[in-house]
Amino acid sequence: MSEAPFVHLHVHSEYSILDGACRIPALAERAAELEMPAVGLTDHGSLAGAVQLYQHAAKQGVKPIIGCEVYVCDDSSKQEKGYAHLTLLAESTEGYGNLIKLASAGYLQGYYYKPRVDWSLLEQHSAGVIALSGCLSGRVSKALEESREADAAADLDKLVQVFGKDGTYVEIQNAGLAEQARINPLLAKLAQGTGLPLVATGDVHYLLHEDARAHEALLCIQSGDSLKNPNRWRFDTDQFFFKTPDEMARDFAEYPAALATTLEVADRCSIEIELGTIRLPRYPVPEGRDAFDYLVELCEKGLQKRYERVTPEIQERLKFELKTIREMGFADYFLIVWDFVAFAKRNGVSVGPGRGSTAGSLAAYALDITEVDPIKYDLLFERFLNP
Question: Does the structure show a pLDDT above 80 at 4?
Answer without folding.
Answer: no
